[in-house]
Amino acid sequence: xxxxxxxxxxxxxxxxxxxxxxxxxxxxxxxxxxxxxxxxxxxxxxxxxxxxxxxxxxxxxxxxxxxxxxx
Length: 71
Fold this sequence. Notes:
Layout: E1 8-10, H1 12-19, H2 23-30, H3 34-41, H4 50-60, H5 64-67, E2 68-70
Antiparallel strand pairs: 1-2
């Protein structure tokens, strides 16, 4: 029996709630479409550029570890 593969979970939804910010507001702040942010938020993105992660962290006032969780 094999164990399940480890997963990196995106916590964007939780961080947005903590900041009282909507996906649309974040989209305007980081100049990324709502559709692409939604793909990231729902865990369907296969990769995230460091530059994108940096813009998200700047707009949300957080660290990369606040947005990503290893499970």
